[in-house]
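Here is an idea for our session: we take a single protein and study its fold together. Start from the sequence, derive the backbone structure tokens from it, and show both lines together. Once you have written the record down, we can walk along the chain together:
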Amino acid sequence: MWYFAWMLGLPLAAMFAVMNAMWFEMREDKKLTED
């Protein structure tokens, strides 16, 4: 049943990576607009 963990874990990791990238981009944009 290891593939159940993969089916749940891979989309979760992908979503986490996308959210992390979006948050990082937003933070960089704020830093640029502050200057």
